[in-house]
C-alpha cells in the first residue's frame, strides 16, 4: 500500500507516521529531530526534561533528582531540546507530547508552544482546556489521544461549547502500546477494545464532526502490513513508539535498547503504576525486588504526576515512576523501569531512523 501525506492544521506530514512521544529521555532532540527529517512526524516528550544532559538546565536537585515540578519539567531544557532538534530537521513539522496527568500541565503546554512545537499531543486524560491554553498560538495544531468514541464525543462537545474549536487530528490508542494505557487492566484484554476494533468506531464518530480531521491509529502497530491494515480500517496514519527505541538516534541509554533486544514475549507485561492506570513494560529485576526490603525507597522529590498525590500512590505500588524512568534513561538496569509495547520482543537489532522509516513505508 502506498502511504499518502496527511494535512494537520497548516502542516503537511509527508510520511503519515508519528513517532510516539516517550519520556523520560527516550524521544528528545536526536530521535524526534531525525524522524521529522525523514518526512514523518518526530515528537519530543516533555516528561522529565530536567534530566536532559545530566540536569545542567535545572535550578535545584535533591539526591541527584530534579527538585519539584518546575525542575522536573524544565522550561530551559525543553527550549534547548527543541533548538537542537531544529538543527537536525530544519523547518519540518515537529510535535510535543505532554501528558494531561502531569503536574503543571497548563504551564508546560505554553512552554512547548514558546519553544517552537508545531503540534501538541496529549493523552493520559482528556485535555478539555487545551484550546484555551494555546489561544495565543493559533498555528499550533492540537491532537488529543482517545481510546473510545465516547471519549472523543465528550472532548469535542466541550471544545465546541467552550472554544468553538475542533481538534486538528485525533490519535486513537489501543491497549497494546507501551507505557500507560487508557483502559483498566481487565478492559485491556477485551476484544472490543483492541485497536482494529476501536479504529472504525472512532472514525465513525469523528466523521460526525468533519471529514477533514485525520485519524491516527496507535498501540501495537509494528510494520508496513500493520499500517496498511489500520488504514483499511479507517485510519489516515499511525503512531509508533517502541520500534523507534531500536534506532541509533534514540536518546535513551544503550542498556535500554539491549534489554528490548534480549526480551522475550513473556517478559513484556502489564503492571500497576502510581498514575492509576496499568502500564506495559519489560519485567525486570525491579519488579522482583519491589516485593522485598531491597527495593529502592520511595520518596517523592520531583512531584511529577497529579494522580500520585505526592508519592502516596507510589508507595502503594512500591516504586516512584519518575525515579525508575530516569534510571532507565541513565542505563541503570537493576532499578530502571523499561516501558515497551506488546511487540517490543520483536526487536532484534538497532538500525537508523531513515532505514526504519523506509521499511515502514515500503515493507521489509
TrEMBL record:
Enzyme nomenclature, EC number: 1.3.1.9
Domain of life: Bacteria
Gene3D superfamilies xref list: Aldolase class I
Keyword line: Flavoprotein, FMN, Oxidoreductase
Molecular functions per Gene Ontology: enoyl-[acyl-carrier-protein] reductase (NADH) activity; nitronate monooxygenase activity
Top-level class of the enzyme under EC nomenclature: oxidoreductase
InterPro entries for the chain: Aldolase_TIM (IPR013785), NMO (IPR004136)
Entries under Pfam families matching the protein: NMO
Record protein name field: Enoyl-[acyl-carrier-protein] reductase [FMN] (EC)
Source organism per UniProt: uncultured Campylobacterales bacterium
Amino acid at each position: 500500500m502506498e502511504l499518502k501525506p496527511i494535512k494537520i492544521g497548516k502542516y503537511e506530514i509527508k510520511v503519515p507516521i508519528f513517532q510516539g512521544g516517550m519520556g523520560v529521555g527516550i524521544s528528545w532532540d536526536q530521535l524526534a529531530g531525525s524522524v521529522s527529517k525523514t518526512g514523518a512526524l518526530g515528537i519530543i516528550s516533555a516528561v522529565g526534561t530536567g534530566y536532559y544532559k545530566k540536569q545542567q538546565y535545572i535550578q535545584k536537585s535533591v539526591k541527584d533528582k530534579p527538585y519539584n515540578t518546575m525542575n522536573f519539567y524544565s522550561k530551559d531544557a525543553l527550549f534547548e531540546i527543541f533548538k537542537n532538534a531544529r538543527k537536525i530537521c530544519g523547518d519540518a513539522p515537529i510535535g510535543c507530547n505532554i501528558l494531561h496527568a502531569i503536574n503543571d500541565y497548563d504551564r508546560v503546554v505554553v512552554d512547548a508552544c514558546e519553544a517552537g512545537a508545531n503540534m501538541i499531543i496529549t493523552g493520559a486524560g482528556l485535555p478539555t482546556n487545551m484550546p484555551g491554553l494555546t489561544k495565543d498560538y493559533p498555528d499550533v495544531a492540537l491532537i488529543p489521544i482517545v481510546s473510545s468514541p465516547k471519549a472523543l464525543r465528550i472532548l469535542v462537545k466541550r471544545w465546541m461549547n467552550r472554544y468553538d474549536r475542533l481538534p486538528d487530528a485525533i490519535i486513537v490508542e489501543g491497549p497494546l502500546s507501551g507505557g500507560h494505557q487508557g483502559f483498566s487492566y481487565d478492559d485491556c484484554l477485551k476484544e472490543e477494545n483492541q485497536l482494529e476494533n476501536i479504529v472504525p468506531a472512532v472514525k465513525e464518530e469523528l466523521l460526525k464532526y468533519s471529514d477533514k480531521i485525520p485519524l491516527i491509529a496507535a498501540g501495537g502497530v509494528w510494520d508496513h502490513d500493520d499500517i496498511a491494515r489500520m488504514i483499511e480500517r479507517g485510519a489516515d496514519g499511525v503512531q509508533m513508539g517502541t520500534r523507534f527505541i531500536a534506532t541509533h538516534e534514540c536518546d535513551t541509554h544503550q542498556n535500554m535498547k539491549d534489554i528490548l533486544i534480549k526480551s522475550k514475549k513473556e517478559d513484556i507485561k502489564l503492571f500497576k503504576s502510581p498514575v492509576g492506570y496499568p502500564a506495559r513494560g519489560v519485567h525486570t529485576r525491579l519488579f522482583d525486588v519491589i516485593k522485598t526490603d531491597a527495593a529502592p525507597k520511595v520518596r517523592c522529590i520531583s512531584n511529577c504526576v497529579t494522580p500520585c498525590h505526592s508519592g502516596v500512590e507510589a508507595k502503594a505500588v512500591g516504586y516512584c515512576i519518575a525515579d525508575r524512568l530516569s534510571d532507565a534513561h541513565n542505563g541503570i538496569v537493576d532499578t530502571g523501569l523499561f516501558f515497551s509495547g506488546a511487540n517490543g520482543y520483536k526487536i532484534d537489532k538497532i538500525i537508523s531512523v531513515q532505514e526504519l522509516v523506509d521499511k515502514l513505508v515500503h515493507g521489509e
